[in-house]
Design a protein that fits this description.
Layout: H1 3-7, H2 12-39, H3 45-66, H4 68-77, H5 79-100, H6 106-113, H7 116-128, H8 134-151, H9 157-160, H10 166-185, H11 195-219, H12 228-256, H13 258-263, H14 267-279, H15 286-303
Helix pairs in contact: 2-12, 2-14, 3-5, 3-11, 3-12, 5-10, 5-11, 6-10, 6-14, 7-10, 8-15
């Protein structure tokens, strides 16, 4: 698909809205790491994720109710799929991310997360036999090399000494989980569900899976939200990082497909690093600059559309 074909043709007008939504969606996603980094000192990770997805599921309950017959059929026929999406998208990419932010910066997390489109390509090849050429394979290798630069802080000696940031490694797992979530989200099992109803159903799975761990944190005396700033951070995560971000992404996947939607994750480092530096005051080092250029170079090489050759006489 060429860049022009995204807008051109009879369905060009209908494509404008999902494309506009996807331009803003990475900004909403990036806000999660900013809110999370500022809130995690006051709220334990599983509790923060549980409150996030419980509030989101309640907000989306009316949409689930309006599509209750189709939701009931989905839950009955694809229970394991429903729970897996909740685990990948809300458990790992929720509590796991907040836990990782206790060890690393929002800047590192954002840059590592940016590799998820590369992982989507690999997973689509494994699950759906997606053809993968040399350009994509080279781009994937370059992108992952960029992540290595970020994780190693530009110092190969860190690998020899096993001096790796634990939070960065968790973010790598979260990026893979997000890629798998994105691939599994689109298919015949979810095709009959409206976007808001599907998202509400998955948030419920996430809340249910997180509940035992949040209860354990509460019983063990872990950090609970008590201050206005803590509740404000939770509210920001629910509205911007959850309802708008996930809703926008699922809308994009449903209308544009996982691979095309993944291209818009190019904007994650722009939004995320910018917010981390401006809002959180995080430092921006040389290895971040080298890493971001390498990762984005790999992404562009692997996923940027290539124009089709013109047929003779066309």
């Amino acid at each position: 698909m060429t860049n022009a074909s995204l807008f051109a043709g009879a369905n060009g007008a209908t494509r404008f809205l999902p494309l506009a939504v996807m331009i803003l969606t990475p900004l909403f996603f990036s806000s999660n790491l900013i809110f999370g980094r500022s809130t995690i000192p006051e709220v334990a990770p599983f509790t923060l994720a549980f409150l996030r997805w419980t509030a989101a599921s309640l907000a989306l309950a009316p949409f689930v109710w309006m599509a209750r017959d189709r939701v009931r059929a989905y839950l009955r026929e694809a229970t394991a799929h429903w729970l897996l999406l909740g685990f990948l998208g809300m458990w790992i990419c929720g509590a796991g991310v907040y836990y990782a932010l206790s060890f690393t910066t929002a800047t590192n997390g954002t840059l590592i997360y940016t590799t998820s489109p590369l992982m989507i390509i690999l997973l689509e090849r494994l699950f759906f036999g997606r053809a993968t050429g040399w350009r994509e394979l080279a781009g994937i290798a370059i992108g992952f090399f960029g992540v290595a630069i970020i994780v190693l802080r530009g110092d190969l000696k860190a690998l020899a000494d096993l001096d790796l940031n634990y939070g960065d490694l968790v973010f790598i797992s979260a990026a893979f989980s997000w890629a798998l979530y994105s691939v599994l989200l689109k298919g015949r099992r979810t095709a009959g569900l409206p976007v808001a109803a599907l998202f509400g159903t998955i948030t419920l799975a996430g809340a249910l899976l997180l509940a035992p761990f949040a209860l354990w944190e509460w019983l063990s005396g872990a950090r609970m939200p008590e201050t206005l700033s803590a509740w404000g951070g939770i509210a920001g995560i629910v509205v911007f990082s959850s309802l708008l971000a996930f809703g926008g992404f699922q809308y994009g996947v449903a209308r544009l497909g996982a691979s095309t939607t993944g291209i818009f994750m190019y904007l994650l480092p722009v939004y995320g690093v910018g917010l981390a530096v401006l809002v959180l005051g995080e430092p921006f080092h040389t290895h971040h600059a080298v890493g971001i250029l390498t990762v984005l170079g790999g992404l562009v090489l692997a996923t940027a559309p290539v124009g089709r050759k013109r047929k003779p006489g066309a």
